[in-house]
Design a protein that fits this description.
Blueprint: H1 24-39, E1 57-58, H2 61-67, E2 83-86, E3 101-105, E4 110-111, H3 126-129, E5 133-136, E6 157-160, H4 165-171, H5 178-181, H6 185-202, H7 210-229
Antiparallel strand pairs: 1-4, 2-3, 5-6
Helix pairs in contact: 6-7
Length: 235
């Protein structure tokens, strides 16, 4: 697992290190379950996605409050919006008025996040259920690139937790530190294994990939703890 804030393909750089969650085990399970659905008529696992009904889809203000409380973490000030367009009364007959009149934006919602900034809906790997960092699907541009209030294209973020309570208090980080959550690596891996087993039981992870996910969790613990213990530097 390589953690970097720079895209080796084009040199673009984010304010945060890129999202390091490996979702390929979930894709493998989804492919197998899709095949069984078609060939054996075995129903797939229930869908998991943000919903207004249960409060897992919310206005952007909810995650904004969480992320702006984190040190050195911004929140996108310009979120994509879809606006109402009026092509004129004859549009239904194929005669459109161009350019159309631009109206008010449609209401838009985003996935709700927990106190750490991790999404609470969807199919969640141990990265999110037994976290060592905050993971997002977005990343702002690094100031050295210019336009630091703009989103990068298709790049998420990994924002590691502080290593210890002392680090957390020194940084003013509201998230519990790694050591406060997991006294030992053994305890962390035991929790990660339990969460991975739950995904196997729900049909979202193949049993043969359980050890892979646990091994990834072990490596992730080493890397993120090392990063969290590094002295704070101005980027």
């Amino acid at each position: 697992m390589l953690l970097t804030d720079t895209n080796p393909v084009d040199g673009t750089r984010g304010q945060q290190k890129f999202n390091s969650v490996d979702y390929t085990p979930l894709l493998r399970a989804a492919l197998v379950r899709m095949d069984r659905w078609v060939t054996e008529e075995e129903a797939p696992p229930s869908s998991r996605y943000p919903r207004l009904a249960d409060g897992t889809a919310v206005p952007p203000e909810q995650p904004k409050r969480v992320f702006t409380a984190l040190p050195e973490v911004g929140f996108p000030p310009y979120l994509p919006q879809v606006r109402r367009l009026d092509f004129g009364s004859a549009a239904e007959r194929g005669v459109a008025k161009l350019p159309p009149e631009v109206g008010e934006p449609y209401p838009h919602f985003v996935p709700a996040v927990d106190q750490d900034g991790n999404e609470v809906s969807g199919v969640r790997l141990p990265d999110l259920t037994v976290p060592l960092a905050t993971y997002t699907g977005w990343n702002l541009r690094h100031p050295q690139m210019g336009a630091p209030d703009q989103l990068m294209s298709l790049m998420g973020s990994t924002i590691p937790f502080p290593a210890t309570r002392r680090d957390r208090e020194a940084l003013g980080d509201p998230r519990l530190s790694i050591s406060e959550r997991y006294p030992t690596k053994t305890e962390y891996l035991a929790q990660a294994r339990r969460e991975a087993q739950r995904l196997v039981e729900s049909g979202h992870l193949l049993a043969e990939d359980l050890e892979l996910v646990v091994d990834q969790a072990s490596r992730r613990h080493e890397i993120l703890l090392e990063i969290s213990e590094s002295p704070l530097t101005v980027r």
